[in-house]
Amino acid sequence: MSTATTPANPKVGFVSLGCPKALVDSERILTQLRMEGYDVVSTYQDADVVVVNTCGFIDSAKAESLEVIGEAIKENGKVIVTGCMGVEEGNIRDVHPSVLAVTGPQQYEQVVNAVHQVVPPRQDHNPLIDLVPPQGIKLTPRHYAYLKISEGCNHSCSFCIIPSMRGKLVSRPVGDVLDEAQRLVKAGVKELLVISQDTSAYGVDVKYRTGFWNGAPVKTRMTELCEALSTLGVWVRLHYVYPYPHVDELIPLMAAGKILPYLDIPFQHASPKVLKAMKRPAFEDKTLARIKNWREICPELIIRSTFIVGFPGETEEDFQYLLDWLTEAQLDRVGCFQYSPVEGAPANLLDAAIVPDDVKQDRWERFMAHQQAISAARLQMKIGKEIEVLIDEVDEQGAVGRCFFDAPEIDGNVFIATEKDIKPGDKIMCRVTDADEYDLWAEAL
Ligand code: SF4
Fold it and tell me: What is the pLDDT of residue 272?
């Protein structure tokens, strides 16, 4: 493992004043910053920048807001103001000319952009291992939100520098995660996307300690977290799940409709030799049998995954093994990357033949053609079925949404021709009328 050290995570302090609506705004901003790798700290001294979410409802609230801004400037110096009082920028700047930015209520993107200006997010995006797409995640549409449950990772995959950069797994307290989820749902979120570097390892670092949520005990463990999230009445989608044995516990929850029957498992390869060189966790030759078993319990289950082709030492035989495995596994949603070395990753030191670029490209194209045929055939089977669709966008041509098959930004869409008066965030029942390799077309019922 590389011993290269990289800068610590940027740190944000946050003061949230005002009513529950302001608290919800704070939660959305904090959720976004946390997901981008910022640490949220509780003292002015520890923060690289302080955000004050103000209340401007009555004069006393405005006075308190101005006082807190003053305190933050005195104690820290780098202060961004948002919230209801932000609409009175002139009044704030008259008293505190040194504030760095002022935005109004629900201007999530502007606040996050202002934080980026003062303390940039970490620039170590890697498409093979990162939790979010390179373009980042917009805070709109507002009907889905990412819920980060832990930081760091206990594994040592040879192509990855996350453990040396972000350290070992640190699980967030289960009560905090569930409180955040509850506030997001109160703010109108209809879909929670659970993310971390290794979602199935949640709680390992704290020995699955029992926490509390709404006065009841809840274990810091993936299954118990999912059970609790399922009581919030929104879609719960799991990303970055490794196939540890206890993942089997989730399948009955999916079959019972408690969480979405969707598992994002980054398999990365299938050849035992390549997986060993990659040092991937939780892989064994029974994975295909487990997938079969999961589908017997929950026939609806959608499995998404990503793969790497052209890893050092990958032979044509290994690659053919991967294609055959894909034929057997019948995964629904698949992404593929050509291997490229990450600075500081142990894979760079492997004593293995480097796969030439033209061979990587050829394998990537063959992989994509192979999997597209599988994905297209699986989507064809959905034609005629009734599905619930969460609407993401509406324009004059109709509506675009997603059903449980599709995570936002990375999977497909459902295109709906409808005259109905619907808006983003609505859930409507549809019948599937057509499909291609990625997307579905449907009519509203
Ligand atoms: S599981 Fe492997 S790829 Fe994922 S963060 Fe940990 S070391 Fe990196």
Answer: 92
The confidence score (pLDDT) of residue 5 equals: 44
Helices (H), 58-159: 59-75, 89-95, 108-118
pLDDT in tens, 59-69: 777 888 999 99
Could you report the per-residue pLDDT of 12-36, keeping only the tens digit for each?
A: 999 988 766 677 678 778 888 887 8
Q: Are both 106 and 220 inside the same structural domain?
A: no
Q: How far is the CA of 160 from the centre of ligand 1 (A)?
A: 6
More confident residue, 6 or 76: 76
103 shares a domain with 208: no
410 and 427 inside one domain: yes
Domain containing 426 equals: 385-444
84 assigned to a ligand binding site: yes
* CATH code of residue 440: 2.40.50.140
pTM for this model (two decimals): 0.78
Q: Is 403 labelled a binding residue?
A: no
Is residue 130 a part of any domain in this protein? Answer: no
Q: Which atom of ligand 1 is nearest to the CA of 242?
A: 1
Residue 285 CB neighbour total at 10 angstroms: 9
Q: Strand (E) positions, 204-358?
A: 210-213, 216-219, 235-238, 262-264, 302-309, 333-338
Q: Which residues contact 57 (CB under 8 A, 6 or more apart)?
A: 18, 19, 84
336 is in an annotated binding site: no
Given the CA of residue 279, which atom of ligand 1 is nearest to it?
A: 2
Average pLDDT, integer, range 131-140? 53
| Tokens matching residue 110 | 């502007």
